[in-house]
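Q: A small favour: would you put together sequence and structure tokens for a protein?
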Amino acid sequence: MYKQIKMLAVLLLFLVAVIPTSIFAVEQGNYNNVDVVRIDVDDKEFKVTDANGLAGTVGPVYAGERISIEVFWEADGGNWSEFDAKITVELDDEEDETEDFRVSPNWADDAKFVFNLPNDMDVGNYVLHVELEDENGHKNLYSEIVIEVANENHFVDIYDVNFRNGLEVNAGDTFFTSIGVKNLGFEDQEDVAVSITIPELGLFQRSSKFDLFSEDYVKNDNSADEDDEWKLYKDLFVTIPSNTASGVYDVVVKVNYDDGDKSEEEVYSLVVRQGATQADDVISIDKDSQDFAQGSGAIYRVLFPAGSDYNVEVTGVDSFGSVIVTEVENGAQIFVTAREDAASGSYPVTVKVMSGTSVVKVFDATANVTKLAEGSVTDIKEGLQIGFAILLVILIILGIILAAKKIGKSDDYEESLMDEGETYY
């Protein structure tokens, strides 16, 4: 018996030895089965050389430019189950990532990314991080590539614009602007000029030309003149013509530099209101007070200058009724109605003339709602009763006439029958 048990044990060991080990080698795939093997930054290749990942420097890359990044990955040829993964790229707190992609043994592919560097990005070294993460949240960091960001050779930025009285002005008044510019480029800039333009009104003013040195030149005491600047403000102004129609106008703020070959600009919206020299009836309302009874309404008309592009907003009507605003030629028609159960009294109605989202003119109107007179209701009731009585009399008369006609026809028919009988006898 003992010998038999011993032989069985030997047989089991033999079977274990001859069973293919691959049956027991299957494992769940994870981030250890796939690696980033190369990263290209602006066509410069970085290949994996050791377990510490990729390292190196790319530059100079200029602020305002684009960086193209391509990440290549490969999976090993082991016997493991496919899984999902994704790649994340981070540069200067800006992050981008792929959607989840499938990874299987011996597969290889790449992922592409583009980063737009801000024009005002600080000069310095930035580390490019590249991570590969599997579906279980396991991560591998592959990149410690340094991106050297430098100033463009020529770049002047509009970094601040101030309007002394805001972006609203009356026709006939002066519009003041203070424009801050700074040299973010590597080269000094000569003959820089700033300007403001209101194209629709044909208004333009430009500063005299000035120099802007590089920030590095001024801050490192290389300047021979203490008045040398790398950033400054210029004040400009234009006077709005007194006959300018109310509306919203584009204001273009611009800086020209690099011998006039380059420029930067920003556009703002200026609201022009009516000036003291303009007639009060340029925008007007026909009546600012209307009387109407419960259940009825009245029309207010607002008149605009020819060719203007205004819209009208009405508030204050909800408390007693409803309002419909209809655009008509050179104005708007406002139809205000009172509910039948509205309390009698005077209600304030505000009519705003708008240019876009800006208020051009406001009218304080009044709706005087009166009760529907009881006498008028009684008169209507009595009129209906009288009308019904008249209609009833007419119907009776018509009935009598129709009955008489019917009787007459019956008599004629009997006489004709009698005459026919006499003929046959």
Remarks:
- The chain has four domains: 25-150, 156-273, 280-370, 381-425.
- The chain is about 20% helix and 50% strand.
